[in-house]
Design brief:
It is built from 23 helices and five strands. The chain is mainly alpha-helical.
Length: 508
């Protein structure tokens, strides 16, 4: 085993260790994670929320026992593989051992540590962006057709994981067209590779077509409810934070892409970052959508710095560039991870507020960062729902209906009673079992002030009551209420079917 391999294994080991140490046991999983895990039980070629790859990984997690360890393992794995691809990119660019260590350090001590704590499509998205850029460098360097086909496979995997990778092509194509490397776009086998890529993503495109392209509705809803609060200046500011410890390395990469002769073939990467960021800014994208753009530039910068720091007094700057990411990791450790109790954050909000971390998608400041608040209250909700469910007769004829996918997913993940909660929200609208004639209803209702649920739903049942609520004041779901209705007076299935039809029509 070579020295380089031992060092790489060390970085990978440290990556996994950190991912498991950066979350306090006081936090549950995050709301999106519950939805993704539930998709394992409803495998399909598409979903209202995400493409299908996440459901495949969720099914593997389910087969492995569905433990939190495995939920956290896969995003950590994708983060480790991103580090490996950057390492291989540096080797391809003929970087020495210093370049490899610098690049790996920059990737390890970055925002990817936060991203890779969450079981969402984002970790694999960053890996696919990084791998695709690696393939592009291989293709430009060797002009071997096999890399076009490998690129088609990587892009297809990225597309089937998160549609965000489309922005990669939108930024890359004009950059290539304006460069001397545009001749690779005239190679016939490139278009055979494009056909391969289209064939791989076709099942998902057909699913979108058969379901009236719910992605269009999803993006419209996202733009109206979340992206409307995105500020373009804030977007640019946040770009600096993602790899703040590597900022000088990325700047070095941009300089080298313009003036370093060894990178002449790859000069189009300079235009690529400008075009891609411009597209994100135009569409008012969330800042983290662009994270996958940067790892390849860290590879370029590490190789360039390893060359210019080899001689004279510059040699003494070598450790500085490696220490900088470590120094920036210290404040990142204190702010960016849910490793402090909610009580501590609420009592010491100054630093969080200064960084804009207390501002949620509603544009308002709260006690905790939104992602942290989204990791609280779920076990409490599931435990209390289980307790209510256990007391009911005719359990098979009991519907557990939630307001949102986080509530339904959390109940289904933690339940000890085999509950299959549903919601008219997100993918759950397609997962109702209407073969059962429901007599009882457990209604999970998000708190929005004084509730009229008893008055509205109670008349359809013989008995109705409030059975509990989430009491964790720091949870985003604080005061979410559990209503219980028993012995239906009417056929509630018809009302459910009408609600499902209305929701599906809205999604169209």
């Amino acid at each position: 085993m070579t020295r380089k391999t031992i060092i790489l294994i060390g970085f990978i080991f440290l990556k996994f260790v950190l991912q498991y140490l950066l979350i306090s046991h006081e936090y549950d999983l995050q709301r999106d994670e519950y939805l993704h895990l539930d998709q394992a039980h409803h495998l399909a070629w598409g979903y209202l929320s995400v493409p299908p790859v996440t459901s495949w990984i969720s099914y593997i997690i389910f087969l492995l026992g569905n433990a939190v360890f495995w939920v956290k393992f896969f995003p950590a794995l994708f983060g480790a593989l991103t580090l490996v691809v950057v390492w291989k990119t540096i080797e391809l660019l003929k970087g020495n051992l210093y370049a490899l260590v610098l690049g790996a350090t920059c990737i390890l001590f970055s925002s990817l540590l936060r991203l890779n704590t969450l079981y969402q499509p984002n970790s694999l998205d960053v890996l696919c962006w990084t791998a695709f850029y690696y393939v592009i460098i291989q293709y430009v360097t060797t002009e071997k057709p096999k890399w076009a086909f490998i690129g088609a496979i990587v892009f297809s995997l990225g597309f089937l994981n998160k549609y965000n990778i489309i922005f990669l092509l939108i930024g890359l194509l004009p950059a290539l067209l304006l460069s001397k490397q545009r001749h690779i776009l005239t190679q016939k086998k490139l278009y055979l590779a494009l056909i391969l890529g289209l064939a791989l993503i076709l099942p998902n495109l057909l699913w979108q077509y058969r379901n009236q392209f719910p992605i269009v509705h999803h993006m419209k809803e996202l733009a109206e409810t979340q992206l409307v609060n995105v500020d373009r200046i804030d977007f640019l500011k946040e770009q600096l934070l993602f790899f703040i410890g590597s900022f000088l390395v990325i700047l070095a990469a941009l300089y080298a892409l313009l003036f370093y002769k060894s990178f002449a073939k790859y000069k189009f990467f300079f235009a690529n970052i400008i075009f891609t960021l411009a597209v994100f800014i135009y569409f008012k994208a969330k800042a983290y959508y662009a994270i996958g753009l940067y790892p390849v530039y860290i590879a370029f910068g590490a190789v360039f710095l390893s060359q210019i720091l080899n001689t004279g007094w510059r040699h003494y700057l070598k450790p500085v560039f490696i220490i900088i990411p470590l120094l920036f990791f210290i404040p990142m450790y204190n702010l960016a991870f849910p490793n402090k109790s909610p009580e501590y954050i609420a009592k010491n909000p100054e630093k969080y507020k200064k960084m804009g971390m207390l501002r949620w998608e509603d544009g308002k400041d709260h006690d905790l960062p939104q992602d942290f608040a989204d990791m609280l209250g779920w076990k409490e909700l599931a435990r209390k729902t289980d307790s209510v469910y256990a007391l009911l007769p005719n359990k098979r004829e009991t519907l557990v209906l939630c307001d949102n996918y986080g509530q339904a997913g959390a109940i289904n993940y933690y339940t000890k009673k085999g509950i299959k909660a549903v919601s008219f929200n997100a993918d759950y609208v397609n997962w109702f079992n209407l073969d059962v004639y429901y007599k009882n209803l457990i209604r999970i209702k998000t708190y929005e002030g004084k509730s009229t649920e008893l008055q509205e739903t109670g008349p359809y049942f013989q008995t109705s009551a409030i059975a509990g609520e989430i009491t964790n004041t720091y949870a985003r779901e604080y005061k979410t209420t559990i209503f219980v209705f028993t012995n239906a007076k009417v056929n509630i299935n018809k009302k459910i079917e009408a609600e499902i039809k209305e929701e599906k029509n809205y999604n169209k």
